């Protein structure tokens, strides 16, 4: 396998280092900037759903000079995350924290689950927040309770964060529920536990990343738990200006592409496919590698003239998923494809890898991704996407236009393998799909109007807190 790092002695490498430092310092901005809120259409109209029908929140596309979140100035906001890591949920909440501090909100962060031993990653993220004006408190104790009672708004991040309510607030839970906005990202069935979400019907509102996930939560909570969702907002994420600037800078893309490919031992003419997700069985890296191996077999059996292909797994963490990742590496060794497969450690700086790729594979299994931020980031870099036909990916990828969708599970291995071969053999198709994906991002998944959208949601939650929550999804 190729090396994963090189020196920075030449002027070109120093230029590259500047880019990489930018990505590291503003990593949260790169990863999760600017969520768009509401049911979106390309004309800038957004709506929330309840039992009485659709409530339209029309913002249009007009440029605004004042930050629409200015009304949050001086307000106290408590953010409660189930963990603090490089995964999507905590990073999204950190992005919200920075948006609020930028307009003068007083933001307090609580991490409910902390490791017993000091975690360098968590320490680094907490330091980043402290540097941006976010106060970090212990999850338990009187200070946490007092902050929750005084806060103008409390944001619970992910369903698991619901465990914090009874464990810490105890008898004060009912006083805090009317000012909670619950941001949910999970799709897996084990999150539908009374232990986590018994208070969900009584909060001011819920925010969910895709229509598919919102509908799933609506049905699952009713059928399994016998509860109704509160007023629910669908949140489609968008790309940051920072990421778009790099994606649209041909010089930056070229320098990043050359560096990453050199570090991996991949030539410019080779075709590079990658999954960029934390390594876990639910993200489907095992099935991707099986499909990649199958694609090599198809090329060999059919004697096709195809450039050399490589597969990259970005998100490796042997400490977190030792057994599963050992299985992946054993498969690669057993099939003799070590020269074609590369493992890269989990990183916030995903833009360099997007610049280096030819195709992104979004292979999340079961119900798929709740949304899949990396998908729209890849499309910004004009990459076609091969995704599973599940979850939020179906709301992003236009099958046959910006990429192709394949079934989840083992049934998807052969279709994915065939799609890999088709794109590897056809650079014109890759370019055409990539350009269409970029156009879709510019039309639907951009930063523009994001502040207006999130402001409209926060305003509504603040206005409705304390009122009887009879409006349902």
UniProtKB/TrEMBL annotation:
Origin: domain of life: Eukaryota
Annotated SUPFAM superfamilies: UDP-Glycosyltransferase/glycogen phosphorylase
CDD domains: GT4_PimA-like
Keywords linked to the UniProt accession: Glycosyltransferase, Membrane, Transferase, Transmembrane, Transmembrane helix
Keyword Transferase annotated: yes
Entry's transmembrane regions: 15-33
GO molecular function: glycosyltransferase activity
Residue ranges annotated for the Glycosyl transferase family domain, each copy included: 258-438
Transmembrane helix as UniProt keyword: yes
Family annotation (PANTHER family): GLYCOSYLTRANSFERASE (PTHR47252:SF4)
Entry protein name: Glycosyl transferase family 1 domain-containing protein
């Amino acid at each position: 396998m190729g090396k994963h790092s090189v020196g920075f002695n030449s002027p070109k490498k120093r230029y590259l280092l500047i880019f990489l430092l930018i990505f590291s310092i503003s990593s949260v901005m790169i990863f999760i900037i600017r969520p768009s809120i509401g049911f979106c259409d390309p004309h800038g109209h957004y709506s929330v759903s309840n039992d009485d029908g659709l409530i339209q929140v029309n913002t249009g596309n007009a440029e605004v000079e004042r930050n629409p979140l200015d009304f949050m100035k001086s307000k106290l906001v408590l953010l409660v995350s189930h963990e603090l890591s490089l995964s999507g949920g905590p990073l999204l909440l950190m992005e919200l924290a920075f948006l609020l501090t930028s307009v003068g909100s007083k933001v307090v962060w609580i991490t409910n689950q902390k490791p017993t031993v000091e975690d360098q990653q968590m320490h680094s993220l907490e330091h980043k927040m402290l540097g941006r004006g976010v106060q970090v408190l212990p999850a338990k104790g009187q200070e946490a309770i007092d902050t929750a009672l005084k806060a103008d708004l409390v944001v619970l991040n992910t369903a698991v964060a619901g465990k914090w309510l009874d464990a810490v607030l105890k008898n004060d839970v009912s006083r805090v529920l009317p000012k909670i906005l619950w941001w949910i990202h999970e799709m897996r069935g084990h999150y539908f536990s009374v232990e986590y979400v018994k208070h969900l019907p009584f909060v001011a509102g819920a925010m969910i990343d895709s229509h598919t996930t919102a509908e799933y939560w609506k049905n699952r909570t009713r059928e399994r738990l016998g509860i109704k969702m509160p007023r629910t907002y669908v949140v489609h994420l968008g790309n940051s200006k920072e990421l778009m600037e790099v994606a649209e800078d041909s010089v930056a893309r070229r320098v990043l592409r050359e560096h990453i490919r050199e570090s991996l031992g991949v030539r410019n003419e080779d075709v590079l496919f990658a999954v960029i997700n934390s390594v876990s069985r639910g993200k489907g890296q095992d099935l991707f590698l099986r499909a990649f191996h199958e694609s090599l077999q198809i090329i060999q059996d059919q004697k096709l003239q195809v450039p050399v292909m490589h597969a990259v797994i970005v998100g490796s963490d042997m400490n977190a998923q030792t057994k599963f990742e050992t299985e992946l590496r054993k498969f690669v060794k057993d099939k003799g494809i070590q020269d074609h497969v590369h493992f890269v450690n989990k990183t916030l700086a995903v833009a360099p890898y997007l610049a280096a790729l030819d195709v992104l594979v979004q292979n999340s299994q079961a119900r798929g991704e709740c949304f899949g931020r990396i998908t729209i980031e890849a499309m910004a870099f004009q990459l076609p996407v091969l995704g599973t036909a599940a979850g939020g990916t179906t709301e992003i990828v236009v099958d046959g236009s910006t990429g192709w969708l394949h079934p989840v599970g083992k049934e998807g291995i052969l279709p994915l393998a065939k799609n890999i071969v088709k794109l590897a053999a056809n650079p014109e198709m890759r370019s055409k799909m990539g350009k269409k994906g970029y156009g879709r991002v510019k039309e639907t998944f951009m930063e523009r109007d994001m502040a207006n959208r999130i402001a409209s949601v926060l305003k509504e939650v603040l206005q409705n807190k304390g009122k009887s929550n009879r409006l349902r999804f």
